[in-house]
Structures are given as structure tokens and as C-alpha cells.
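C-alpha cells incoming
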């Protein structure tokens, strides 16, 4: 047997590095967080070979005082907290004091820094040998810090073997930069790879500059199809919560969960509770197997979250997870239900113009902000009040007069108005319409195409509706509303079904007896480790009840809530709606078509069918003009 001995400093740090330093991306995360903690307003990142060969991060933050240099690279040394209480109201991203020690143990690390008020021109520090002794030499450096990490894992071949291709490693690294860039709009970031500029993000403090950054980081397509949301819960509640940010319309879903950013008090978080709340909010509008896209910020009293749950701090624990879950779910659920013709709609735009989320536009070529692009956007009350369509006066006058788009709108709106006037003369039978505002968002039906689409005219131009998809959603929402009004009809099982579960599950079922009863299910304890299902909603009589109950209990234990029973009933209603809806190839009369359009305007979530496909689209006069090269 070997004798007990102390690990060398380097070896101890290497072991700790196992948790924090997985790949170049994790180095960048730690180093950038340090720059942000140091109050930097500009951070330049230079990497070579996916970050394996070199990661160099330069910031203009507070710098490190010469005397502190040796400690910066020592484990369990930090300037950020000094007592356990500090953790409660943490304002910094780091606090464990082990990132630099870990990184230094598995790479060639140099710190160069110049702190204000120390009278030094700058000094550099590197650590060497088994005990990682710090060697210090003078090195000129402007105010701030440069961290240079070379040859990552050069001394830990086992780790090196897990690295992927340069491209993959760089993608991970870039993702880290994007996340941090979305968490701090007020800081300028630049990223270069192998000498090539990848990102140049200017600092911004106002709304518009934030939107510009989101559009740059997440792609203009996301911004074009995102709703801006903002909700606050304060006052009587035990503590305040604020959720704001952008959520992709259901029709902008992704095949992977790769455009999902969630920040809690400015910290990038991947959290099961939050993921579940968001997923639940999209349940009814997303195509099966698709993932929503979002950039969301949750602000909460720091004392209500524990960030010290995981070494990389990607997870948090909420003191009152259930109410955070509910708040996120209900905010998003509400916002998504509002997505229907007239409250939110998306128009095709000139390629260089990206909606900023509130009716203003960003010109991606010049970075210029346009006050009015002549389109409605978002669930803002103003847009809703105008029936989702821009008021005529606004269109021509407030669009940037010199821009091509501005001139376009003016011309097109005049044309649109003339057309509409002519149209009204032809259709005097229509309910008295005397001003543009009275034209409903989806306009009036003109014709049916191939028994599949309805063509309609509204103030903006042509509306195309997939009549089966639209009717399916209307029927489905109707069935759900009827169920909610009349209550869920349930029926006793001829043979009550026993389900073997754990003691904890029996207890949880008891605690949520109300939930089950409300949903038409009666579930009783039948022993210490057994439940019995006695009554179920009529709709669910043919379902796998045991599986459903188990899944619901699992949700309740993990998230404190479950929507599975509703979800399951909804699925069945959705199938019924599909069968009961107008099939393609049925001729509709003009009044029938108009009735369908009006129903769509009234129906929640009617922008997508039950499967998340869009139900309608708008072809504006300007797009039609473009097709015919008019007004060029
Ligand atoms: P932690 O961030 O948890 O404190 P680190 O190992 O990441 O631990 O950093 C150790 C210390 O080094 C920090 O507490 C901070 O004082 C100092 N430091 C690291 N990077 C920078 C930087 N870019 N600017 C100023 N100080 C820094
Ligand atoms: Mg740190």
C-alpha cells in the first residue's frame, strides 16, 4: 500500500479542472465572465485553431493589482466574495476562485494586467512547475487585462482526446460568446478566429440597439418572426419577478433546441424547470417534435435564487420554483394565445430591413433605425387597436422619406386605398364600411382557389388562407372552450385500476387531489405504495391511464405542476377537430368564407393550425408590385 501524501498543486488543480474546463469554449466562458466581473465595457477575443492553440481575451476592465497577481492564479482565491452571506446577494458571475487555477494547470497561461491607481505600467504573470509557482515580469499593458491561454490540454492527453474538430470546438466557443453578448448589451464584443473577424458587436444601451444585437446574434429571420414580451409580477406577491425578451412565433419553430437563450439575473441558464415551463406554453401551437426559439430574461430578487448549485453555474435553484414556473408559463401562454390575425402579423420586408419588434425597423446594411416601416408587429395594444394594420396616415408620413422603403410604402398605400375604394363600390352589399380602419384584419373574401385556399383582400393587399387548417384550429378552440365551460364529463371505470407507485407518489397524488378532481379523474390511495384510478374523463377512457398517471406524478414531483391530462385531452379534441373540419375541395360560398375569416380573427392561436403550421399569409401590395416590377 502506498502512503498518504499531498497532491501537488498542479495535480490538485488539474483534478478540479475536470469539472470546469471541458473544452476551449469553457475556458472562454470563464475568462469572459472575469472580464465582465471586472467591469469591462469592451472585450476582444482572438482564437486560433478552434481555441486549442490560442485563446486571447483582452478587456478594458479594472485590472489586477500587481500584488494580487500571484493569487489570481491560485485556487480558492477570489476578490468577489468574503463571506457566505455575500453569496446570497451575488452581483458577480464568478465567486469560486478556481477558474484561472484550473485553466493554468492544463495550459500555458499568461495574465497581463494594469490596474488603475497602482502606478504600474503593467505586469505579466505565468505559472510554472508542479507547484505552479507564479513568475512575474514587467510588461506594458493599457488599463485592463489580457488573458492568454495557449496549447490547451498539452499536459493532459486524456482530455485532449475528447476534443472534436477545430470547427466543432469553434462553434461551441462562438456559442458561448453569443450567449454572453446577449446577456450584456452594454458591452462591446469582438471575436476573431484564425485572424478572421467573426463578430463585431457594438455596445448599446437603448431598446433599439438591444434588438439590433439580438438580430445580429440570432439571425434576422428570428427577429422577423418574434414577439416582444414583457411582464412583471410584483406588489402583493412575496417577491417580484420580471420576464422580458423575444419569443419566436410558433411558425418559426426549429428542428433543434438550438435557439433558446434564457438569462436569470443576467446569468446564462440551462434549467429543466424553465425549459419545462416554456415547452408547456408552446404545447398547443407547436408542430410535433419542433422546438421553440426564444431569448428571454428573468429578473428576480437574488436572494430567491441559489447559483451555487453547479461548478459551471449553468443551473440555478429557485427558492420558490413553482411560482417561477407558473409565472413563465402563464406569461408565454398568454402571449402566444394572442397570436391571431389582427394582433400580430408578419410581412415580407425588403431584405435589408429587419423589424425591431415594435414597428421600428433596423437597416442591416447601415445599422440605421427606421422609426416606422409601415407594418404592424407584436401584441402591443396600439397594433391591436388599429386592427393590426398600420393606420394610413402613419404609413406614408413617418417612413424614412429618403429610403427606398419609405417611398415604396407611400406609393403602395395610395394604390391600396384606390383599389379598396373601387372594391367597395362593387360590393355595396357589405356591411357599411366607411373608413379604412373598419376593414377587418383578414379583409373580405374574393374567391376560393382549387378548393383549398381562400383569397381575400384587406387594407394591405392580398390575404391567403388555408381553409382546412384555419377551420381545424377554430373547431379545436371551440371544443376546448366548450369543455372548459361545461366542465369535463367523467365516467367511473367498471373495474377500478390499481397502479403500484412509491410512497412519495402516493403522497403527491394526495396533495394534488384537487387537480385530479378538476380534470375529471378520481385517484385514491389504496395502500402505502398503491393508488387506484376510479374515474376518468370520458375523452380519456381509451387512453393508457397508468402511463398517464405515472407521467403526471413525475411532473408534479419535479415541477410542481402538470399539464399532461389537459394535453392528452387536447390531443384527442384536436383529432376530433381535424375530422370535423371542412376538408379540402369543398366549395364555400362568399358569406361562408367571410364567416370563416371573422371566426379566425376571434379565435385564439388561429395563426397556426393544430399542428403548428401557419393558417394564413399576407401578400402586401408592395410585394405584388415587386412581382411585376412596378414602381421601380
Ligand atoms: P473567480 O472569478 O471565481 O473569482 P477566477 O479564478 O476566475 O475566480 O479569478 C480569480 C481572480 O482573478 C478574480 O477574483 C479576480 O480578482 C481576478 N481576475 C481574473 N480575471 C480578471 C480580469 N479580466 N480583470 C480583473 N481581474 C481579474
Ligand atoms: Mg472567474
Amino acid at each position: 500500500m502506498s502512503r498518504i501524501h499531498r497532491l501537488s498543486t498542479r495535480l490538485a488543480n488539474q483534478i478540479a479542472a475536470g469539472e470546469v474546463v471541458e473544452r476551449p469554449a469553457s475556458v472562454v466562458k470563464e475568462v469572459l465572465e472575469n472580464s465582465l466581473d471586472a467591469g469591462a465595457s469592451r472585450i476582444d477575443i482572438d482564437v486560433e485553431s478552434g481555441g486549442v492553440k490560442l485563446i486571447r481575451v483582452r478587456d478594458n476592465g479594472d485590472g489586477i493589482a500587481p500584488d494580487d497577481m500571484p493569487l489570481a492564479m491560485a485556487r480558492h482565491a477570489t476578490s468577489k466574495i468574503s463571506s457566505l452571506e455575500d453569496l446570497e446577494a451575488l452581483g458577480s458571475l464568478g465567486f469560486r476562485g478556481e477558474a484561472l487555477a484550473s485553466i493554468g494547470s492544463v495550459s500555458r497561461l499568461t495574465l497581463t494586467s494594469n490596474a488603475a491607481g497602482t502606478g504600474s505600467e503593467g505586469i505579466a504573470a505565468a505559472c510554472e512547475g508542479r507547484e505552479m509557482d507564479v513568475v512575474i515580469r514587467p510588461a506594458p499593458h493599457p488599463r485592463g487585462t489580457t488573458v492568454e491561454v495557449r496549447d490547451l490540454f498539452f499536459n493532459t492527453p486524456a482530455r485532449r482526446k475528447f476534443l472534436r474538430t477545430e470547427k466543432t470546438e469553434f462553434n461551441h466557443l462562438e456559442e458561448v460568446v453569443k450567449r454572453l453578448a446577449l446577456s450584456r448589451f452594454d458591452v462591446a464584443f469582438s471575436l476573431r478566429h484564425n485572424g478572421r473577424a467573426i463578430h463585431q458587436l457594438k455596445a448599446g444601451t437603448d431598446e433599439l440597439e438591444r434588438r439590433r444585437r439580438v438580430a445580429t446574434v440570432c439571425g434576422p429571420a428570428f427577429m422577423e418572426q418574434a414577439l416582444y414580451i414583457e411582464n412583471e409580477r410584483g406588489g402583493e406577491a412575496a417577491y417580484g419577478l420580471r420576464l422580458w425578451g423575444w419569443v419566436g412565433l410558433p411558425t418559426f419553430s426549429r428542428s433543434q433546441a438550438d435557439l433558446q437563450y434564457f438569462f436569470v439575473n443576467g446569468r446564462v441558464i440551462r434549467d429543466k424547470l424553465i425549459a419545462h415551463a416554456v415547452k408547456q406554453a408552446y404545447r398547443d401551437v407547436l408542430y410535433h417534435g419542433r422546438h421553440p426559439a426564444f431569448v428571454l430574461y428573468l429578473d428576480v430578487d437574488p436572494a430567491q435564487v441559489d447559483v451555487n448549485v453547479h461548478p459551471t453555474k449553468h443551473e440555478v435553484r429557485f427558492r420558490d420554483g413553482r411560482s417561477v414556473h407558473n409565472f413563465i408559463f402563464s406569461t408565454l401562454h398568454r402571449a402566444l394565445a394572442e397570436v391571431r390575425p389582427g394582433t400580430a402579423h408578419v410581412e415580407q420586408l425588403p431584405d435589408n430591413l429587419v423589424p425591431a419588434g415594435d414597428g421600428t425597423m433596423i437597416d442591416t446594411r447601415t445599422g440605421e433605425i427606421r422609426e416606422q416601416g409601415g407594418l404592424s408587429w407584436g401584441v402591443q395594444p396600439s397594433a391591436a387597436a388599429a386592427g393590426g394594420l398600420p393606420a394610413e396616415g402613419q404609413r406614408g408620413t413617418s417612413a424614412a422619406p429618403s429610403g427606398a422603403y419609405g417611398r415604396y410604402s407611400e406609393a403602395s398605400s395610395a394604390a391600396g386605398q384606390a383599389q379598396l375604394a373601387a372594391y367597395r363600390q362593387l360590393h355595396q352589399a357589405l356591411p357599411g364600411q366607411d373608413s379604412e380602419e373598419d376593414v377587418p384584419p383578414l379583409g373580405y373574401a374574393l374567391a376560393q382557389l382549387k378548393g383549398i385556399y381562400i383569397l381575400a383582400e384587406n387594407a394591405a393587399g392580398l390575404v391567403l388562407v388555408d381553409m382546412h387548417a384555419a377551420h381545424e384550429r377554430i373547431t379545436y378552440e371551440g371544443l376546448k372552450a366548450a369543455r372548459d365551460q361545461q366542465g369535463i364529463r367523467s365516467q367511473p371505470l367498471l373495474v377500478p385500476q390499481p397502479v403500484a407507485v412509491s410512497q412519495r407518489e402516493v403522497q403527491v397524488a394526495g396533495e394534488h387531489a384537487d387537480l385530479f378532481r378538476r380534470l375529471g379523474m378520481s385517484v385514491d390511495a389504496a395502500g402505502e405504495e398503491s393508488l387506484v384510478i376510479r374515474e376518468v374523463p370520458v375523452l380519456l377512457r381509451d387512453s393508457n391511464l397508468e402511463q398517464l398517471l405515472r407521467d403526471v406524478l413525475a411532473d408534479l414531483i419535479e415541477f410542481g405542476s402538470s399539464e399532461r391530462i389537459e394535453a392528452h385531452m387536447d390531443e384527442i379534441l384536436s383529432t376530433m377537430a381535424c375530422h370535423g373540419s371542412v376538408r379540402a375541395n369543398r366549395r364555400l360560398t362568399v358569406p361562408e368564407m367571410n364567416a370563416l375569416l371573422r371566426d379566425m380573427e376571434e379565435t385564439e392561436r388561429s395563426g397556426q393550425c393544430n399542428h403548428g403550421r401557419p393558417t394564413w399569409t399576407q401578400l402586401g401590395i408592395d410585394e405584388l408590385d415587386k412581382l411585376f416590377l412596378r414602381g421601380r
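note: The longest strand covers residues 490-500.
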